[in-house]
Known about the structure:
- The structure is a single chain.
- The protein is α/β, with parallel strands linked by helices.
- The protein folds into 2 domains: about 120 residues, ornithine cyclodeaminase, domain 1; about 180 residues, 3-Layer(aba) Sandwich (Rossmann fold), CATH 3.40.50.
- The protein contains 11 helices and 15 strands.
- The strands form 2 sheets. The chain has an 8-stranded parallel β-sheet with strand order 9-8-7-10-11-14-12-13.
- β3 and β4 form a beta hairpin.
- α2 crosses α10, α2 crosses α11 and α3 runs parallel beside α4.
- The longest helix has 19 residues.
- The chain is globular.
- The termini are close together.
- The model has no long low-confidence stretch (mean pLDDT about 95).
Amino acid sequence: MALLLREEDVHAVLTMSDTIRVVEEAFVALAQDKAINRPRIRMLEEHGVMHLLAASVPSMEVMGYKTYTVFRSGMRFVVMLFSTHNGQLLSIIEAEWLGTMRTGATSAIATNYMARPESSIVGLIGAGQQAMMQLIGVCTVRKISQVNVYSRNLPACEKFCEKMSHGLKIPVRPVANPREAIEEAHIVITATTSSTPVFPGEWLKAGCHINAIGSNWASRRELDLTTLQRCDRIVTDSCEQAKLEAGDLIIPADEGLFDWNSVHNLADLVESNIQLRQSADEISLYKGVGIALEDIATASLVYRLARERSLGSELNLLS
């Protein structure tokens, strides 16, 4: 019997700390060639697009895929989770919250390995749901004392800051322009839908770390060339997929202004269990594109916890 899990079931079982742990385990497996990740494919139709990502993590006894559609009527996410032992369909999981959580968790992992341990001030560009999970993830791995948030939508930004201040028990305040968010930040987060750079690299503080996760289309970028030129360390969750989707890197590379050899896989960093930072003044960048490995590892955790707590509905499907 397969287990059908709704969004409310995922909400009920998934915590940021647990998601960080299971995604990190999956990256170690990937670095050791004990997991498989397949880059996203997209099917563009007249009124929208369908995305498909697949991965296998035998150490977690699961394989599967996430698919989601983006149309004017909305976005719909689902994970199909299978057993690596016998191919049995284990679970069908509504996966919007799951995807948001795994993205925040992956940035948190990158932050933990790349940002200075004493980092305490966050500059956040964006005030949507993904921005929320990015901030929660970073606050899980660093002792953050102040967050400055910029969004073009001021009412939404003010509401976001009030909610996050209450939830995180730290000052989260809206600022009037991107510069106020960026200049003093030890950790910079970009979580926007912008197709053009959201701040100039000259604003970056020496020694800061950047998590850029808003764009995963080849024609869009949140970061300018100066930002890349100032970065001493650049890591992504998948170099293979980034070469297809990370406009932040693809656009300057196609212009002959960026070398892909300077980009490292997060899995290799996690597996080595060392910090790349060589000095306090180095600027580091994590460019996230969002890969199937993160989804399937998180789905495995959701499925196991839901079974333990008797959540979801049984389906006699593909048995």
